[in-house]
Amino acid sequence: MTNTPANAAAETPEEEIFEQKAVRLAKRERLIAERTDAAGGAYPVAVAVTTTIGAVRARFDGLEMGAETGEQVGVAGRIVFSRNTGKLCFATLQAGDGSRIQAMVSLASVGEESLQAWKELVDLGDHVFVHGEVISSRRGELSVMVSTWQIASKAILPLPNIYSELSEESRVRSRYLDLIVREQARETVVARAKVNQSLRQTFIEHDFLEVETPMLQVQHGGASARPFVTHSNAFDTELYLRIAPELFLKRAVVGGIDRVFEINRNFRNEGADSTHSPEFAMLEAYQSYSDYNGIADLTQELIQNAAIAVSGSTSVTWADGTVYDLGGEWERISMYDSLSAASGRSITPETPVGELVALADEAGVDAPPHATHGKWVEELWEHFVKVNLVRPTFVMDFPVDTSPLVREHRTLPGVVEKWDLYVRGFELATGYSELVDPVIQRERFVEQASLAARGDDEAMRIDEEFLRALEHGMPPTGGMGMGIDRLLMAITGLGIRETILFPLVK
Fold it and tell me: Keywords on this record (predicted)?
């Protein structure tokens, strides 16, 4: 008999868990012994649900205390609270969406034998089917007055305490428990589904096609990142988990798919922190005959529509209660101009690396080995400017040597037509006027190969197959990439491990 919520499994002594498991396994054996149908086993193959707990609540919420409806329903859920008394037992059944209803098992309704079986067999965490009349209890609790019931599945291990917070580590490692006990965990899963649905709908409205490109690649490219390496036995060759779908999506544009996007997984063999995960979901999109300004307009629309899909408004409320406004037109600032203003120095694409290093030394800014002019500019910009960005902001016009896949600026020498979108102080998306000239692209790849030869693990390699595709002609194109996990962070205020249903953990 269970009268109170169980302690969290992670906080329960091992001996007690062992004892509870033994008791519950014995109950399972009894269920097997008492089965009379031909199916065998401890649990029924299916139960005769007629509706959901959420549907019952939607239809009958607001019943007066003690009211009877005459409506018979069959519902199922997980028991998250149980209180057994002499002739009347109470249990709270919870559906997967978190909706709950009370089940009342009385001697008068089910008989002595069934009531005793309930007391002896049912535990917290069990999935139970109940059939009976929808009523309101004398305390006004919407309930099912049970006439028949079945254990649909028994929890062999105890549930966490639904009234206590799981630690962050427990939430991440045992997400299934997190989903059972914490409403916000379930809401985040729903929010992610709404975001993906909204993104796809916005793309459909703009005549984009969704495609899928390879996860396993013979050569990694499309971003500056360290890849995961594996081996194909079938082809006896080294393969890479993709760091980006970019080079294949551009092949699709060459082939005539003028508006194309993909939402799928990327893998980068780098650090993990509150905004980075080695495995993450990525959106990339390419629009022919557009540029980085047009793709910025589309990106703003995509994000604002996703916020509305989740929150009903472009003003979103984060998990800590902060209200953040994603509405309106977002500011667009120049990387070089904003860095010059914030640092008090005039910094241009012609500024020598020595001057940038001297400024970095004064400010205590470090850069990776073999840092180029552009890398120093970006590190200095993050130090002086990024920390002060509050509203969503497009940071425009990056150094050419850090952006090998981007078209040179049409009027500013030494920079490329690239933006990064910053929201909540982190980079959410990036967009380009794509480099479509195969001659210049080859020169950029050669420069990257030189960096790789000097020890830069993130530098790109020369991709002859991609260059061959470009040589068949790629139209002027605007492209963008955005992390889905980070978009959830911007809308919910959560860390990246909270936005991923099952994040990678050691």
Answer: Aminoacyl-tRNA synthetase, ATP-binding, Cytoplasm, Ligase, Magnesium, Metal-binding, Nucleotide-binding, Protein biosynthesis
Task: Tell me how far apart the alpha carbons of residues 48 and 141 are, in angstroms, rounded to a whole number.
Answer: 24
Closest Cα to residue 53, out of 16, 101, 11? 101
Domain boundaries, the chain: 14-153, 181-330+391-499
How many angstroms from the chain centroid is the CA of residue 112?
Answer: 49
Q: What pLDDT digit, counting tens, does each position of 44-85 carry?
A: 999 999 999 999 999 998 899 999 999 999 999 999 999 998
Block residue for tokens 């002609």: 473
Share of the chain above pLDDT 70, in %: 95
Distances (CA, A) of 236 to 196, 230, 241, 393, 464: 37, 11, 16, 46, 21
State how far the Cα of 227 lies from the Cα of 238, in Å rounded to an integer. 12
Q: Which of the four pLDDT bands, split at 50, 70 and 90, describes residue 8?
A: very low
Q: Which residues of 136-149 are buried (b: 16+ CB within 10 A; e: fewer)?
A: bbeeebbbbbbbeb
Do the two domains 14-153 and 181-330+391-499 of this chain adopt the same fold?
no
**Sheet with 228-232, side-by-side order of all strands:** 216-217, 237-241, 228-232
Inter-residue contact 188 to 51 (CB < 8 Å): no
Residue 94 carries which side chain, given as an amino acid letter? Q
Cα–Cα distance list, 273 to 190, 276, 278 (Å): 24, 5, 10
Does 329 show up as a binding residue in the annotation?
no
User: How, if at all, do strands 259-267 and 209-210 pair?
Assistant: parallel
Contacts for 489 with CB less than 8 Å, ≥ 6 apart: 275, 424, 426, 495, 496, 499
Token digits of residue 479: 């492209």
Q: What dotted CATH number matches 181-330+391-499?
A: 3.30.930.10
Q: How many residues does the chain have?
A: 506
Token pair of 383 as six digits: 């130090």
| Nearby residues of 214 by Cβ (< 8 Å), 6 or more positions away | 242, 248
454-496 confidence digits (pLDDT tens):
766 666 678 899 999 999 999 999 999 999 999 999 999 998 8
Going from the C-alpha of 89 to that of each of 1, 82, 341, the distances in angstroms are 10, 8, 70
DSSP three-state, residue 291: coil
Q: Is 37 annotated in some ligand binding site?
A: no
DSSP string computed for 244-285: -SHHHHHHHHHTT--EEEEEEEEE--S--BTTB-SEEEEEEE
Query: CA–CA distance from 418 to each of 285, 335, 341 (Å)?
Result: 14, 10, 20
Cα dihedral angle (425, 366, 241, 228), rounded to 10 degrees?
-130
Mean pLDDT of the 172-191 span: 92
pTM comes to: 0.88
User: What is the CATH number assigned to the segment(s) 14-153?
Assistant: 2.40.50.140
